[in-house]
Amino acid sequence: MIKFLTQNMSPILVAAIRMPLAGIVLLFFVLKKYGLYNPSKKQWRLLFCIGLISVCLHQLLLGYGVSVTSSANASLILALNPLTTALLASIFVEEKFTRNLGFGILLGFAGVVLVVFSKSGTVEFSLIGDVIMLLAMLTYVIGGLLIKKLLETPIPTLVVTAYSTLIGGILLNLGTLVSFGPSVYGQIHLSSTAVLVLLLSAWGATALGTLGWNDGIKQLGANRTAMFLNGMPFASMFGGVVFLNEKIAGIHFLALILTTLGIVIGSISKKKVILLESYKI
What we know:
The protein is an all-alpha fold and 281 residues long. It is built from 13 helices and no strands. It starts with a helix and ends with a helix. 42% of the residues are buried.
């Protein structure tokens, strides 16, 4: 959906429209379920930081980064997210970096590498673009850790998702105005099909996807949830086959197997490993 929308306007502008739309629909469900939920001052600070870092800065850096580096470099740098999350989570939010988790991350990264090289064949070094993509990846990781920290307090996941998405969407539009000026909104010329795709992207992929992601962080932890990011290239790949008539090669299936194994192995908790070993005995 994003690939289709960016044929009509810039990635940053797509995000600037998509995020507030997602935040509004999530806010509707918050009002329906909880009324006007008022977080504590500490929770508001964390919500603002999540919106600023994980939504606004991430989207601005990502939108600019993909324009000044290759798609191969961007994919590989973003694929470092699970490893970076696992390392930082072990330091800042006391999530254990287990052997299974490390092995799962490596398998998943290997799958992403296969997909990237099957498309481009080479990776060209671009200092500015690669640094920007690295910062984009780090902002998303830091945002995930802040979400983990916030969800340790008594606040519903739906509220966290709605408020942070809406805050981030507002800040993203302010950042877009400062960076590109009001004239950037003159690029918006959407067909009825593009409007439908935009709404599906905002209300489906962004709103529901972010809600599921945040709930995953709460239930599984930031490190184990981050591993599922390695599945994104394959979701995009299959979407390309269905909607854009792109082709899948045999190497893609091998990459999918590696990534799936990585997610399964990395998701096994220490308790489950002990339980499996006890059955063997």
